[in-house]
Structure formats: C-alpha cells, structure tokens
Amino acid sequence: MLLAHLTRRRLEREAAALLRRRRIAASPCAPLQTVESGESGTRRLLNFGSNDYLGLASHPDIAAALAEGAQRWGAGSGASHLVTGHSQAHARLEGELAQLLSPWVPDAAALLFCSGFMANLALLTTLGAEQAAIFADKLNHASLVDGGLLAAARMRRYPHGRLDLLDAMLRDCEQPIRLIVTDAVFSMDGDVAPLPELLALAERHDAWLIIDDAHGFGVLGANGEGALAHFGLRSERLIYMGTLGKAAGVAGAFVAAHPAVVDALVQGGRSYIYTTAMPPALAHALSASLKLITGEEGVARRQRLATLTAALRERLSALIARHPGRGWQLADSVTPIQPLIVGDNAAALALASALDAAGLWVPAIRPPTVPANTARLRITLSAAHTLDDVERLCGALAACRPEADRHA
User: Fold this and answer.
1) With contact defined as beta carbons under 8 Å apart, do 51 and 246 qualify?
2) Is 138 a catalytic residue?
3) pLDDT tens digits for 114-134?
4) CA 272, CA 189: separation in Å to the nearest integer?
5) What's the N-to-C CA distance of the chain in angstroms?
6) Per the residue annotation, which of 59, 90, 215, 230 is the catalytic one?
7) Which residue in 59, 86, 141, 246 is the catalytic one?
8) Sheet of strand 253-257, all strands in order from the earlier edge strand to the far edge
9) 77, 187, 271, 333: the active-site residue
10) Catalytic status, residue 40
11) Is the pLDDT of residue 24 over 80?
12) Could you give all domains of the chain from N- to C-terminal order, each with its CATH number?
C-alpha cells in the first residue's frame, strides 16, 4: 500500500511538472562547474544557481584553513556542544561573530548551529512558548514556517510586505510575548524586507524582531555584516540569524542576540542540544572566511557583485521589453538573487532545459517553493562571475524563444 501510494504521488508530481531531481557536481563550486551527465560522462556548465555570492566556496585561503583545521582538530567534533563537542575553534568563531554583530545588537552573544534550518527551528520552538504569538511574513523560508508550526505559540502569517495588516494583528494580540519573524532577503524573490519599519512596529507593540539574514550576511553592509548594518539598525529587540554556507562559503549558521536569548537556546533549543556539533575544522575555516568578508577583498568582491547585478538587470529588462509576448517578468531585486518569473511550471522547466543545452545551469523553481503560477528561473550571481558570463546568459535567454514567440 505504501509503495503504491508513493508511486502514485510521484506520477502526479511528474504530470504537474513538479518532479525534483538532483545533479551530481564533479568539481568544486565555481561559476564553471563540471557535472555528471549520464552515460555521456561529464559536462562543463556555467553555473547561475549557487548561493556562493562572494565566490568564497573555493577560495584557496579558506580551503587551506579547512585543511589546517582538520590537521589540528581532526575530522569530527565527537559529540554535541553540551557534551564534549564544543572546541576552542567553535568558541573563537562565536566570539568573532558576536563582535561583528555587536554594533547592531547591543551586548550580543552568538551561538553556532549546523545549519540555518536548525537555527530557525531552535529559535521559533524555544521562544515561541505558550504565552507567545508569532507573526510571520507569508514568503518566509520553509525553516521559519516549520519552526512556527512546531512552536507552542499560535503563528499568524501576514501577506508579504503588508505592514498595515501586521500592525493590526499586533494591536489585537493579547499574548505577552510577541515575535515578528521575517527573512531579511527573500530567497526566491531577492527583495529586502522593510526592516526599519518592522523594528518600529516591534518597538510600538513591545515585540521582538527575528531576522533570517541567510542571503544578506556577507553581501549587505559596508563590511558584509548583513542587513542590520545595511539599514543601520540597533536594538536589544533584534534577534539575528545568519548562515555560513552561502556568502561565507563554508557551512553552518549562527544566532546573534541578547545573552539571555542565547542562553535560552542553549537551555531549551532541541535542534542545538540534541545534535553533534559541526566539525571544529569548519569553524576554523569560517574564521578565515570572516577575515576575507570584512577585509579589503570582501569590499572589492561586493563592489564587483553590485556591478554584475546592475548589468544583468539592465540586459534582462531590455530583453523583456523587446519580447513582451513571452510574459516574462523580472523580480524587483537589488540583491544577487535575480528571479526571471515565467509562470507555468512546464515552461520554466523547458527554459531551464534549453539553457542547459546551451551550457548554462540555471535552476527552475516551482511550487510549493514559490506561489502557484509563478514558476521561475532563480538566477543568482557570484563575485566570481564576469561580465562575459552575464552576456552569455542573456544571449542564451534571447535565443530561447517560446513556441508562441516563434509564430508571432
């Protein structure tokens, strides 16, 4: 019965053009990446799908630090942080992250997690107790949605960006603990949340603001400190989560917040307490990554990324204007996430397949990751890309003419 049920569900997903498939990379993360290609061996593709925004995933200094960390600390941590797995490498990195965020989160303490998903689960389930209420943007990442669903608190979701409705919800809230939860940069649209306005609502309604800055940390802010620095926000009410496997180029995540909040996660965060700590070698490598992000090289990489983003938007906007019949839309984003909204699931898959045939790897994103009828190509840029790479992508998109366009 179970196998028949799973087979039927898979066939239904395939018929709706919603089937997910993995590809096997045969080289390190980089703009030009080798992938396995069935019986034909391997192919080199120009990758516009990774979250390696600063191009640090294959940086030689970080790779050398990872190897050095493995030589010093071994391959694994051996236990959870609360048993025997918390090393000097972990403690040093937490101190560095707390110091980096302290201008924005007063007296910040930091806590490492193995992933952003685990960090968000800990945050929402620990702070979202029975006396709490959670208010979440409807386009928040799945980890925030799942954390809210698992929390004892009631979660209410407001339409994306509708702060007027959020204000009304907060005004009517009777719970003494109020948590506003939002992505800083929305992962499928690339837009930046109105954090100053959200913080103002938090202050007005005696709430806390939990910010998932997975796609802003390392990218936003003069020194890559993230969305808080980008807006110049400072408040004890801020609870900040940043990931370390995107712009930072390695793996893991952290929470930076008031020491009482961090201590609550240590005492009650199940996805922190009951899991093995990340290998100390990763923490050692991440210390090297932070130096690059906040130093002159990080500044230069963010400037290059901004130049590439502007160039891509200019070329895609011109392409859409020349071919309005295609129905493509470019999301309103100033970040390295530049989604090209196609609409139909099958059409998005066909466009991604045509680009693949032209040697470009651009993932098609479909529901439920995005709302129905908004399937898209999620184009992401890296500081390791070049202007020639952008030109190649836009040229290939111009050549991918939909059937209706061919007969216009």
Assistant:
1) yes
2) no
3) 999 999 999 999 999 889 999
4) 29
5) 49
6) 215
7) 246
8) 109-113, 253-257, 238-243, 208-212, 177-183, 132-137, 154-158
9) 187
10) no
11) yes
12) 28-57+297-406 (3.90.1150.10), 60-294 (3.40.640.10)
